[in-house]
Amino acid sequence: MFRSSAPFESQFRWEVDRWVFRFRQRGAPVEVTRLERDRLVARHIQRTRTITRTWFAGVFAFCFLSAFAMPYVPSSWLAAGYFSTAILLGFGLRYWADQAVTLPLRRRLPVGEKLGFLGAWMMRAEVTSWPQLLLGFAAVIPASILVLTLPDAFSRVERWTGAAVVMLVGAMLMFMAALKLLIDWRERRRNAWRDDLEEARDLRVD
Fold first, then answer.
1. Distance in angstroms (rounded) separating the CA atoms of residues 125 and 129
2. How far is 98 from 45, CA to CA, in rounded Å?
3. How far is CA 125 from the centre of its chain?
C-alpha cells in the first residue's frame, strides 16, 4: 500500500532511440512518448494517494461496524472478515493504481520481444539501489537468527518452513547483488571505453 512510484516508473525505459513500456519490467516493449510516460506516472501517483486514504477508510469502517456486531458474531469470524477485507481491498485498489493505468499501453502492438528470465532479473537489479539491497540483508539476518533460535514449542515442520523461506529470500538477495555488481562493472567498462573513444577522436595528426 505504501510503495514508492519507482517500481511503476521503472517499467518505462529509454531503449536505443525511443521510450518504451515493458509491463512488469519484462513484458514485450511498446513505444510511448515522453509526455505519455509523465502523464501515466502522475496518474499512478495520484491514484496511489487515493487508495491509501480509501484503504484506511475501509478498514476503519469495518472496525467501526465490528464493534456493533461483536455481541452477535463470533470473534473468529470478525477476525477473518477483517483480514479478508484488508487484503481484498488492498489488492483491488492496487490493481486500479498499477495495472489499470497502463491497460491502454498493453493493447498496443509490441515493437520487440519479451525479456527472458535473466534479462528480467537484470532489469530489476538495474533499477534496484544498493541501499534497498542492504535494507533487505538487514531484514534477512535478524530473521535467520530468529529461525535458528526458535523455542521447542515450534514443530520441526515449522522450523524447516521458516528456514526455507529465509534461505530463499537470502538466495534471491545474493543473486540480485551479484547481478548488481555485474551491471556496475559493465557500466564502468562502458564509461572507460567511451572516454577512450572521445580521447581518440580528439587526437590530431600534425
1. 8
2. 9
3. 11
Residue 148 gets which letter from DSSP? H
183 burial (CB, 10 Å; 0-12 / 13-18 / 19+) is middle
Sequence-separated contacts (24+) of 195-199 with Cβ below 8 Å = none
Q: What is the mean pLDDT of residues 20-35?
A: 88
In 3D space, the residue among 33, 7, 29, 6 whose CA is nearest the CA of residue 19 turns out to be 33
**Residue 2 scores a pLDDT above 50:** no
Main-chain dihedrals φ then ψ at residue 155, nearest 5 degrees: -75, 170
User: Residue 18: beta bridge partners?
Assistant: 15
Q: Edge-to-edge strands of the sheet including 30-32?
A: 12-15, 18-21, 30-32
Calculated CA dihedral for residues 186, 190, 191, 194, nearest 10 degrees: 180
Please determine, for residue 163, whether its predicted confidence score (pLDDT) is greater than 70: yes
User: Where are any strands of DSSP class E within the chain?
Assistant: 12-15, 18-21, 30-32
CB 25 within 8 A of CB 127: yes
Average pLDDT of span 83-91? 78
Q: In this structure, what C-alpha cell is assigned to residue 25?
A: 519490467
Q: What is the DSSP letter of 27?
A: S
- E strand segments, 87-195: none
| The pTM of the whole model exceeds 0.70 | no
pLDDT at residue 153 in the model: 66
Q: How far is CA 18 from the centre of its chain?
A: 24
